[in-house]
Amino acid sequence: MKGNVIVGQSGGPTAAINSSLAGVFRTAVDRGANKVYGMRNGIQGLLEERYVDLSEHIRNELDEELLKRTPAAYLGSCRYKLPEIAEDPAVYEKVFKILEKLDIECFVYIGGNDSMDTIKKLSDYAVVKGYKIKFMGVPKTIDNDLALTDHTPGYGSAAKYIGTSTKEIIRDCNAIEYKNGMVTIIEIMGRNAGWLTGASVLAKGEDCEGPDMIYLPEITFDVEKFIAKVKDLLTKKSSVVVAVSEGIKVEGGRYVCELSTGIDYVDAFGHKQLSGTATYLANRLSGELGCKARAVEFSTLQRAASHLISRVDINEAYAAGGAAIKAADEGDTGDMVILDRVSDDPYQCTTGLRDVHKVSNVEKTVPREWINEEGDYVTQEFIDYVKPLIDGEVPPIMMDGVPRHLYHCDKW
To answer: What is the pLDDT along the chain (412 residues), one digit of tens a residue?
Structure first.
């Protein structure tokens, strides 16, 4: 490489997003980039000319290893939606003026669907205006809903956390018997795709029966039928554990969490903030069945639990970051790096590229055949898909009894 690289992170973070950042940084340095800049808070920060020279903060091998193990977005994230080029060309003129000033050869954005929309728009503008800057997307989302890639970095670690925590909850629930039974509803992230909630099945094994029911947003949810199933289960066992996606909907498309309260917050991309699904269902159960019922929301823990990351996930996230730089250095632009599964046994995966136009704003959901006929559990195909992604551990580097992270001053 002859010029400089700039990299940003966008959208909801994951436990593996900083491993991709480490992969971008190391590969760019090894390929001769003069400087590797980091955008503070993604494209929004770049528009405000907030960026840093990463070599001043990732100074040695220990820093790189700490970065891989640090949760959240090290550079800071954003949910900024670039306008259409025709609507506000001045925004694009400003972005490219900054990139030219920094002598940027390659622009890398680590994120999900909305972030790939940013790469698409910037690469399109570059082509129209004749800029030689390369634009590459690196996939990131615990939701695992990006199209054309077998899975996304971040999903494996989130799945590992969900499977582990579900198992621990089941063990806890079985410790005490309640007079009228006990029902625990675990609420797991997933607006329209149930990849995360399906991962609760990983709790199932020879030492644990796993959750009793699993409900994904791909299947219309029937509240009355659900209550009847729980009632029947409570005649057979004293404790029932159910995993539900935050985005499950009833007939007509209304979110279950909207049945008790409205949803006021909507982000720049039109996404409603979902919360309260488990609480609503727990209240209905306790009120109608007279049982003890509680709601457990994994919330941000499922994307921030870096103490339980998957080795496969961290290694693939790092490789995806490096692959973006390699592709740009060899002339590619307007692409997203994908993970391509070669085999399940033994598990093998490689990286590839796909046109970002075919990825952005396209949502990948769980195949119907991976959900049982009743719509309340996942099939063996789902289990075979997710199991290899949680393999191995990357132990945290401990200091004073807690994990150590790569720290930076908030005012950098």
So the answer is: 999 999 999 999 999 999 999 999 999 999 999 999 999 999 999 999 999 999 999 999 999 999 999 999 999 999 999 999 999 999 999 999 999 999 999 999 999 999 999 999 999 999 999 999 999 999 999 999 999 999 999 999 999 999 999 999 999 999 888 888 999 999 999 999 999 999 999 999 999 999 999 999 999 999 999 999 999 999 999 999 999 999 999 999 999 999 976 555 454 545 556 789 999 999 999 999 999 999 999 999 999 999 999 999 999 999 999 999 999 999 999 999 999 999 998 999 999 999 999 998 889 999 999 999 999 999 999 999 999 999 999 999 999 999 999 987 666 6
Structure tokens at 252: 């007509």
CATH number of the structural domain 155-304: 3.40.50.460
Candidates 3.10.20.30, 3.40.5.10, 3.40.50.450, 3.40.50.1970; CATH matching 4-148+306-362+393-403: 3.40.50.450
| CATH topology agreement for domains 4-148+306-362+393-403 and 155-304 | yes
Q: What ranges do the domains of the chain cover? A: 4-148+306-362+393-403, 155-304
Catalytic residue of the set 114, 117, 143, 376? 143
Question: Is 143 a catalytic site residue?
Answer: yes
